[in-house]
Design brief:
Blueprint lengths: L6 E4 L1 H6 L9 H7 L3 E4 L9 H16 L7 H8 L1 H6 L17 E4 L12 H7 L5 E6 L2 E5 L2 E2 L4 H22 L14
Parallel strand pairs: 1-2
Antiparallel strand pairs: 3-4, 4-5, 5-6
Helix pairs in contact: 3-4
Length: 189
């Protein structure tokens, strides 16, 4: 994979949640040692939060390989930023803060008790679960303000999601009544 220039998107939450064995088997550290660019991803609606994926990657590989030296905070940050930009062919424009690059910023509220015992705020953030995101700026636009999406009508999104779910269930029921029980009104037991 390294010789071919392949990139890997590692989604620790999905991997562990579905028992893939990728974390337990040590595949990700082995790929990185071989020179494969490994970026963190989120993969599904159940795991949309990259900061939590970062925290999971920080902890999971240490535990799986019984090696506290694996995935130091800087490595995890690079996997979530520059490695992702490399995988998308965007490293010249994104993934790190440099003159001329798109400036996407995440501001974390470190004025919390969980950060107190640590000298390194990145380490504290990973160890406390990657939460506390206060503000996010994407290419200069304020997208998250005080922990909430700044330019999204949450109620409208929820209504659209509920409507899509109802339509999906209706389509499934209409196309496969046998899988939903004899009456077609509920799941088979």
């Amino acid at each position: 994979l390294a010789t071919a220039g392949a990139h890997i998107a590692h989604c620790p939450g999905t991997s562990m949640g579905s028992g893939k064995g990728i974390v337990a088997g040590g595949a990700i550290p082995a790929l990185m040692r071989a020179g494969v660019n490994v970026a963190l991803g989120t993969d599904s609606a159940q795991w949309p939060d990259l900061s939590r994926q970062m925290s999971m990657a920080y902890y999971a590989h240490k535990e799986a390989m019984a090696d506290d030296a694996l995935f130091d905070p800087d490595t995890v940050l690079e996997m979530a930023t520059l490695a992702g930009a490399r995988a998308c062919g965007e490293a010249a424009r994104r993934g790190s803060l440099s003159v001329g690059k798109c400036a996407d910023l995440v501001l974390v509220d470190t004025d919390q008790l969980g950060f107190a015992p640590f000298d390194d705020p990145l380490l504290a953030w990973l160890r406390t679960g990657g939460g506390s995101v206060r503000d996010v700026y994407v290419e200069g636009r304020h997208r998250v303000k005080d922990g909430r999406a700044a330019d999204i009508d949450r109620e409208a999104v929820a209504r659209l999601a509920e409507k899509a779910a109802r339509e999906f269930v209706a389509t499934v029921r209409a196309s496969s009544p046998a899988t939903l029980g004899a009456s077609g009104s509920g799941p088979a037991q």
